[in-house]
């Protein structure tokens, strides 16, 4: 698609870090080339949606990702652990 966007926020308090990110993509079209009875391409685009979803419009979408992390500091060799979930 022609339009994509990514945005995120980060918040830190004490040794905790919180992240929330979003990824958005606009609608897309999945055209195809038609074929004749011999299987040769006719160079005509298929723009009508097909029942199997192979051709037609693909709706836009937004995905959200979240992450939390903890910094143990020098007491534990600067160990940092994090846990994240994608596509909430």
Key attributes of the depicted protein:
mainly beta, 88 residues, four-stranded antiparallel sheet, two-stranded antiparallel ribbon
List the helices and strands and how they pair.
Elements lengths: L3 E10 L2 E10 L2 E3 L1 E4 L5 E6 L9 E3 L2 E11 L8 E6 L3
Antiparallel strand pairs: 1-2, 2-7, 3-6, 4-5, 7-8
Detailed description of the structure:
It is found in: Cell outer membrane. InterPro entries: Beta-barrel_TonB, Beta-barrel_TonB_sf, TonB-dep_rcpt-like. It is a multi-pass membrane protein. Keywords: Cell outer membrane, Membrane, Receptor, TonB box, Transmembrane, Transmembrane beta strand, Transport. With 88 residues, the chain is mainly beta. It has one domain. The chain is built from no helices and 8 strands. Strands 1-2-7-8 form a 4-stranded antiparallel beta sheet, with no helix packed on it. A two-stranded antiparallel sheet has the order 3-6. Strands 4-5 form a two-stranded antiparallel ribbon.
